[in-house]
Each structure stands twice: as structure tokens, then as C-alpha cells.
Amino acid sequence: MPRARKGALVKCDPSIKALIIQIDTNKNDIILEELDDTHLLVDPAKVEFIKSELNRLMAQNIYDPLDEEEES
Amino acid sequence: MSGAPFKATVNEYLEDLPPQVQSRLYTSPATCLAIYRLLPKLAKFFIMSMVFNESDVSLRDLDRWVQSTAKFQFNEAIKSMKSLHLLIEGHSGQPFMINLNSIFRSSFRNALTGGEVNNSFGNVVDDEHEVVLPEMLDQYAANKWESILHYMVGTPLTQTPSRNVLSLLQHSKLMEENGTGELQITNEGFQFLLQDANAQIWTLLLQYLRLAETLQMDPVDVLNFIFMLGALELGKAYNDSHLSDTQKVMLQDMRDYGLVFQKASNSTKFYPTRLAAMLTSDSMSIRSASSAMNSVLTQGTASNTKTDEPPAAKDDADQDPGQVGTTAQIIPDGAVILETNFKIYSYSNSPLQIAILSLFVHLKARFTNMVTGQITRDSVRRALLNGITADQIIAYMETHAHPQMRRLAEQTLDKKIELDPNCKEGLQILPPTVVDQIKLWQLELDRILSYDGYLFTDFDNSQEYSMLSNYASDIGVLLWKDDKKRRFFVSQEGNAQVIDYAKRKLKKK
């Protein structure tokens, strides 16, 4: 008998998927299921949290010309 | 450049009116003259040829006037006249015989030859003691209009526009309330800011017309008043005694937009401003709101300039590409130079221009005639989060690009074509690196897409799986599927339908 499971489908590129998995390693409460390279089933309540975490992680990798100027 | 919500021009609004309303509109000579001014050039020509000619005209005769290369313009002209019901079937009823709308014809004749104009051009009051100078009117109009635009870009202001203006801005979705109850500029609002002043006024007035309909105001009264304003003379006082009650209410609103000036709110006299005179003028060369305002301001303040000249005339001069850059005066206000290192320089000291820039630029320093800043990930993200799109930012910088940048781009393109005659590249006014990066920053914002819904798993056999997944994709709710592992994902909305279907089908077995 088929089963329907509530969740949020997240579509992203593999690199972002890796980041989400990394975010999930702390508590293991975000990802419900890994579907394929570009799709994940996650807890719908955590979608906003994922987005903000991703922003934070990606901001670390951005070169900001203003920072440098203000330091020098 | 402008988005879909602003495509609606006044012509389109007029075309959408029912024929009865149009006929009532055409009884006013001032309105007929204004509509005539809004028509395409060829249509004007045809109307002129028919206005003093009672008998039917053959469409083929009109066609013969037009060169075969201009068929498109001909069809446009005929279409615009037909949709306004200015052109009607001839009296004889024969095919291809046409005539001018008789109401329009007689009103338009009156407008041209000065017959019974029924006060539709306003009543001039001569009062030697209370002369209002055009300079003062310009100042007033610029003040009112700029304060609306300023309010939209969110410059900290001492004066907020009146409640009427705010509700109109909200009604037209140029601004919307955010969580804390404050008004915030929307995506449409930003597009609005990028338009020229004439288009902006019309956008607001069209919204006003829509609002007026819900308030049971007669659109004929409203339109007549707007068109009358366009025909009034700057610096003259007009009496409001012949206005209908609806129009008197409108007068108050128009005062808030800076289209007319009154010394006191209960005064019976009103003075149209340059913004009103611009309404039906067909010179569209005013580039942007702030530059138009600036030219109004400089004309108003400089004592030796000819104040009778419409603001458009000044802007005509500064667009001559051969001369630009040689003298400082003819560089359009707000000209933007964008470097490949994301630094941006804008030659402007209009607070409005600067405020618009600050929507997406990290501004660093301000000098007497220019501001400098830098486009950063944060500044662009802030703009993107406010609903402004990357394309809008790029379009804005492109239209405001400094003539030097344009020339440089042309030179580069010429060189490229010299090297490779088949080069298909277009003119790249802005450095491509910056353009691409802004687009990338936008893409970065939606790195993940999420959909709420249900994952269907644990199918007993592939038949069951394909039956349900096909059904889901047929009704368009299937978001993802994996045929090998026999699972698929449907959207929240479609879930109930799929489950119903599953129950029906699976029970039968």
C-alpha cells in the first residue's frame, strides 16, 4: 500500500545540497530523506532556518572590498 | 524598461471606455484637442483631412497618401482611431467608406476655430493684485512632486505627502504596508521611479481614475478636468465657478500632486503648474523624474532664463551625442559612470537621484557635483530583498549612463566589428563583469527552491506507481519523481486530489 509523507521538497545544486547536509549533521532534524543529487525532502518548518544558515555560510566565502579598505 | 503594470497608457484607458462614455467625453472641445494631441502623427494627419469634410471618405484614399513602406504606421493610426470610435462607418454603409465621429468633429472644430467651447478651456481671471509668478509655481510643483518621490524612496523627510497621496500610492501598489504598518516601496514602485515625469504623472492619474470609479465619480468629469488642466496656461489664474462638484473635489487632490496651486484651500482661484501643462504635450524627451524636476527648478530659480519655455526644450539640447562631454552644462543630470571594479560615480546633486542610487549602491562620498559609491554584494542584496530585480538595476544604470561610457562602448564595439565583421554582440554600455555579477547575486538569493507537499512512497508494483504518478502529472501537481525507486512528490494543493484518486482506483481491485 502506498504511503504519503508530508514534507518540503528542496531543489538545489549538488554543492548547496552538500552544505545542507553539513548543516544537518549537528542535530539530524532537518533532512527527512535524500531523494537524489539535486532534491531533498526536509522538514517544512525548517526551510527558513536552512535559508538563513545557507546565507550565513555563503557570506563567509564572499570577498568584500569594503572590509579591506576600512582596515587599511 | 517599464514593467507590465505601467504599460497601460491613457490611450489604452480611453480605448477601454464604453462608446457611450466616449461620446460624452467628445462633447468637450478641450478633451477633443487633448485626445488629438495624444494620437499618432499619421492619425492626426487623417483627422485634419476629415474634420471639415462632411462626406464619407474611402479608406483606400487614405491609404494612397501613405508610402508602401509605412503600412505598419498606417494600420496603427487607423486602429487607434477606430478603437477610440473617432472613425466610424460612413453614412452610406458601404464597405471601406469611413467618416469622422460627428460629436468629435463638431467639438474639435470648435476647439480649432474657437466656437462654443463651453468653458472647457477654463475661465481666466484677471487680477492685477494677485499675480503668481511662474517661478513660484515651478517651485511649488517641484516641491510637491519631489516630496512624493522622496517619500517613496524613503528619504528622511520633514514633510510627508497628504493622506490622499499616500492612499493613492498604496492603492496603485507602488507602496505597501510592511509588518510595522509603515509604507514601503514595492517592485512596481521602483519601476515607477525609473520612468520620466510625464509617464509618472499619468500612471498616478490613471490610478486616480480607477480609484474615482470606485468612489462613484463620473469618469467623464474626471477626464475632462485632467484634459482641461493640460490645456491651461501657466501663470494665469483660473476660476473654479464652472467646475462640477466632482471636479472641485479633484481640484483638492490635484493640488496635493502639485498639478495646480491654490493660495488657500477655500480659494475660488487656481493656478496650473508646469506639471499640468506637461500632461498632454507629446514631447516625451524628459528623461527622468529628477532630471525633469531639476530642469524645472533651474529654470525656475535662474533669473535670466526664459521661464516660458517648457522643460522639455532644455533636455532636447543635452542629448546631442556629438557635443556631449565638451562642456559641463550639457551632461545630463545624474549621469552615471560605472567602472569594472564596481565603483560608481554619479554626476548629480539632486537628493532624489542620490536617494534612488542609494537603493542599490553603497554610497561613500558626496561632492558638490557628484557622489561616489560602490556596488557591493550587500547593497545589491538589500535592493533584491526589497523586491527590486537585477534587471531593473541594470536598466536604470544603462539609461543613466554617462555619455562618455556610451561613447567608449561604441568604440569598443566598432573595434570588435572591425576584427570580426560577423560579430553579433550588442552595445555593452556597462562593464559586462558588473552586469553579470549583479545577475549572479540575484541567482544566489534563490539558491534553493522549496515546495511544501507530500512524498509518495512504498508502492507495491510499478503499475500502481505509474498510474498515480501519471495522474499527478496530468493534473499538473507532480513536482518530482524517481521511476527507479518508485516515489514521487506532489504539491500541497494537489495532494487531496491524488489521494482521492488513489482510494478510488485501489479500492476497485
TrEMBL record, chain A:
Q: Which UniProt keywords apply?
A: DNA damage, DNA repair, Nucleus, Transcription, Transcription regulation
Subcellular localization is given as: Nucleus
Q: Name one GO biological process term.
A: nucleotide-excision repair, preincision complex assembly
Is Transcription a UniProt keyword of this protein? yes
**Transcription as UniProt keyword:** yes
Supply the InterPro entries for this chain. TFB5-like_sf, TFIIH_TTDA/Tfb5
Q: Which Gene3D superfamilies match?
A: TFB5-like
Q: Which GO terms describe its cellular component?
A: transcription factor TFIIH core complex; transcription factor TFIIH holo complex
Location, primary (coarse class):
nucleus
What task does this protein carry out?
Answer: In NER, TFIIH acts by opening DNA around the lesion to allow the excision of the damaged oligonucleotide and its replacement by a new DNA fragment. In transcription, TFIIH has an essential role in transcription initiation. When the pre-initiation complex (PIC) has been established, TFIIH is required for promoter opening and promoter escape.
* Binding partners and assembly: Component of the 7-subunit TFIIH core complex.
Sequence similarity? Belongs to the TFB5 family.
Protein's name according to its UniProt entry: General transcription and DNA repair factor IIH subunit TFB5
From TrEMBL, chain B:
| Compartments in which it is found | Nucleus
One GO CC annotation: transcription factor TFIIH holo complex
* Start and end residues of each Transcription factor Tfb2 C-terminal domain: 436-503
Q: Where are the compositionally biased (Basic and acidic residues) regions?
A: 306-316
Instruction: List the GO molecular function terms.
Output: ATPase activator activity; double-stranded DNA binding
GO annotation, biological process: nucleotide-excision repair; transcription by RNA polymerase II
Q: Which residues form the signal peptide?
A: none
* Keywords in alphabetical order: DNA damage, DNA repair, Nucleus, Transcription, Transcription regulation
User: Per its UniProt record, what InterPro entries does this chain match?
Assistant: Tfb2_C, TFIIH_p52/Tfb2
Task: Please give the residue ranges the record annotates as the region Disordered.
Answer: 297-324
The protein's job, in short, is: Component of the general transcription and DNA repair factor IIH (TFIIH) core complex which is involved in general and transcription-coupled nucleotide excision repair (NER) of damaged DNA. Component of the general transcription and DNA repair factor IIH (TFIIH) core complex, which is involved in general and transcription-coupled nucleotide excision repair (NER) of damaged DNA and, when complexed to TFIIK, in RNA transcription by RNA polymerase II. In NER, TFIIH acts by opening DNA around the lesion to allow the excision of the damaged oligonucleotide and its replacement by a new DNA fragment. In transcription, TFIIH has an essential role in transcription initiation.
Q: Which NCBIfam families match?
A: tfb2 (TIGR00625)
Q: Which family does it belong to?
A: Belongs to the TFB2 family.
Protein name, please?
RNA polymerase II transcription factor B subunit 2
